[in-house]
Every structure is written in structure tokens, then in C-alpha cells.
Amino acid sequence: MGDRSGGVALSSAAAALALMLIGTSGLVGPRRVIGLDGSSTLAIAADQTVLESKLSEREFSLDQQREAEVLLQDFTRGQMTRHYWGAFAGSLVELGLTPMEKAKTTVRSDDSSTRLWIEPGRGDTAYLALVKRRENRLSTRYCKGHREQVLQPFTSDCPASWIGIDIPETKS
Fold first, then answer.
1. SS (H, E, C) the chain
2. Going residue by residue through the chain (172 aa), what tens digit of pLDDT does each one get?
3. Which of 25, 56, 116, 124 qualifies as a FRET site for 31, CA 20 to 30 Å off?
């Protein structure tokens, strides 16, 4: 009987030792848990970091676009008012406007039209506001497109490959 209880005690001790080693290796080793789709949680965490980075960049881009649209709209309103009183303004300062932070803004005016070009510091998109006298009326146009064409001459309403954009009226 003594041999049998000694054998049970030895197998119990071996099982306890094996469980202890498995538990310790789980606490010390890297945690790779398999997700429901077979991917590891490390891969999921890496994907989440990439996703957060993309979402952050997209949010920044949308904020930049909103800020540009407000400036474009304020520019056209200001230029239309200035034209009513004699001539287009030659700068944003003359209109009482502040340029966007981290963006290059350029105003080009002549007797019949004025343009505001905005090149944000990040991204490939640039913006244009155009106020033009056609016969006895003023018309406005907003465009956006690739920044390589900023300040290049064009003959239509927007530079080639740029698209016209509609900016919803905002309460100022």
C-alpha cells in the first residue's frame, strides 16, 4: 500500500510541477493570444495603431479643409464688398482677414478679377477662390485640386484637373 500512495504522490507532484512551469511560462513569455479570426492580438494591436494614425491624419485633413473653406468664403465676401467700393484688395490684411496657420496663401488681383490660392502645409490638395467681374456682375468660384498647379495660369473657371466645390453658407 505504501508503494501505491508513494506513486500517487509522485505523479501528483510531477503534475503540479508541470502546471507550475506552464503557468510561469505564460506569465514570463510574450502574450500571443489567438483571436477569433486566427490572428494574434499583437497583430490586432499593430493594425489598431495604423488605423488610429490614418484616422488622425484624416481628421487633420478635414479640419484643414474646413478652415480653408471658411477663409475662401470670407475672402470672396470681402472682395465683393471692396469691389463695390472701388477695387479689389491686394492682400488678406487689407480685407481684415488672417491667413491660415501652416499654409501658404497668395492673393493675385487685377482690374477684373482676384484670386486667393491656399496651399496647406500638409497634404496634396490646394484651394482657390476666384471673384471675377463678368459684364456688370461679379461671380465667384471655389476650386480644389493638386497643389502642383497653384499659381499656374488657366482659362476656364478652375485650373485643369481641378474640381469646383460648393461651400455651404456659414453664419458669420
1. CHHHHHHHHHHHHHHHHHHHHHHHHHHHCCCCCECCCCCEHHHHHHHHHHHHHHHHHHHHHHHHHHHHHHHHHHHHHHHHHHHHCCCCCCCCHHHCCCCCCCEEEEEEECCCEEEEEEEECCCCEEEEEEEEEECCEEEEEEEEEEHHHCCCCCCCCCCCCCEECCCCCCCC
2. 556 666 677 778 888 887 887 877 767 655 555 555 555 556 666 677 878 888 888 888 888 899 999 999 999 999 999 988 888 999 999 999 999 988 999 999 988 899 999 999 888 899 999 999 888 899 999 999 998 888 888 888 899 899 999 887 765 5
3. 56
